[in-house]
Amino acid sequence: MPYTKLVVHIDGTYSTVDSVCVKNNLVIVTGSRLRVARVKEEWYEDVHDPEPIIKTLINLEPRPDIFTFWQRLPETTPRYNYYKEWEPIAALPVKSYADWFQNQIGQDTRKLIRRAQRKGCVVRPCTFDEELIKGMERIFNETPIRQGRRFWHYGKDVETIKREFSRYLFREQILGAYYHDELIGFIFLADAGKYGYLGQIISRVEHRDKYPNNALMDKAVQIAEERKIPFLVYAYWARGGLAEFKRRNGFQKIMLPRYYIPLTSRGAIALKLHLHHSLRELIPEKVISHLRTIRGKWYGLRYGHGIANLNT
After folding, report:
1. pLDDT for 245 beyond 80
2. Rounded to an integer, what distance in angstroms lies between the CA atom of residue 212 and that of residue 201?
3. Is 117 exposed, middle or buried (0-12, 13-18, 19+ CB in 10 A)?
4. What are 90's strand-pairing partners?
5. What are phi and psi of 258, to 5 degrees?
6. In the predicted structure, residue 55 carries a pLDDT above the cut 60
7. Residue 79's CB: how many other CB atoms inside 10 A?
8. CA separation for the pair 185, 131 (Å, rounded)
9. Residues 6+ away with beta carbon under 8 Å from 241
10. Could you give the C-alpha distances from 235 to 90, 197, 253, in angstroms and in order?
11. Is the sign of the CA dihedral 202, 204, 205, 211 positive or negative?
């Protein structure tokens, strides 16, 4: 079975990668010095039987060095004997909206939600039409820096946004935060089967005094209760201000088993020496924090301190 070339979005840029489909899983291979294979839609798809994937990858040329997959929430107990590491995701267990509002978030967050309502921030479902896309463009192009780093979507025009954000509408619901009928924030809530996945939570800096991100989270939990979604997942457990936002809104750090199967001698050596991780993952948190401070000061000088210090 030969590879098929596929264009994918990785860390804010588009790259052409090798891909192969095995049963119901589309597997992509990334990296140059160390070629790592993984399921492209691993947030949305389970690997029920890894052996056929492993056998297929071994027979490919060039062979990937490592195949990695994980168990999706809520399966936190390891089911396989492969080498594994624990990966932290941010997950919010949803029993009911009332339980979340009264017990899972603190008084400060409840105040922010009420302030959003008092200041006229209204959250409602919206359709992916020209009006929404233009509102997204205004939000994306408001500032080049978010969360203390360059913002992936800054500089995108209407046509680019339409093309990039229309691909997965079949599984997504969009919630918009409005002030006087102007879009000031939005969130994409995707159906991942076993949980709801939050792909975007972003709002206008100009209107952060109306706390649209908190209002959007409030509405997302209401919808999770209505649709009987047991968890809301907001990607990986982050460092810095984004982690604090997640914690304040009731998200927990939940560890999932991720498996790594070496397919070449290079892959086996890389796993033994922990070279399968990026340099950033290997740097201690104290050093990362110090580097983040330096980066923030640089962006403050270049773009202005108000922009450089934004966390959400």
Report:
1. yes
2. 9
3. middle
4. 253
5. -110, 130
6. yes
7. 9
8. 13
9. 147, 148, 311, 312
10. 6, 8, 10
11. negative
Where is 261: in which H helix or E strand? strand 252-262
Count each helix (H run) and each strand (E run) in the chain, helices first.
11, 14
The answer to whether the CB of 211 falls within 8 A of the CB of 116 is yes
Phi, psi of 153 (to 5 degrees): -90, 0
Decide if 240 contacts 148 (C-beta within 8 A).
yes
Structure tokens of 153?
A: 């979507």
| Complete domains list, the chain, with CATH | 4-85+258-277 (no CATH), 91-253 (3.40.630.30)
Phi, psi of 264 (to 5 degrees): -140, 170
Q: Are 225 and 292 in contact (CB under 8 A)?
A: no
Tell me the residue type at 209.
Answer: D
Q: What average pLDDT does the segment 42-68 reach?
A: 97
* Overall average pLDDT of the 108-112 stretch: 98
Collapsed DSSP state (helix, strand, coil) of residue 159:
helix
**25-45: pLDDT as tens digits:** 999 999 989 999 999 999 999
The CA distance from 228 to 193, in Å, is 11
Cβ contact 232:196 at 8 Å: yes
Burial class (CB in 10 A: 0-12, 13-18, 19+), 44: middle
How far apart, in Å, are the Cα atoms of 43 and each of 236, 262, 271? 11, 22, 23
Query: What long-range pairs does 41-49 form, CB within 8 A, spacing at least 24?
Result: 42/69, 42/70, 42/72, 43/72, 43/192, 43/197, 43/233, 44/171, 44/190, 44/192, 44/193, 44/197, 46/71, 46/72, 49/23
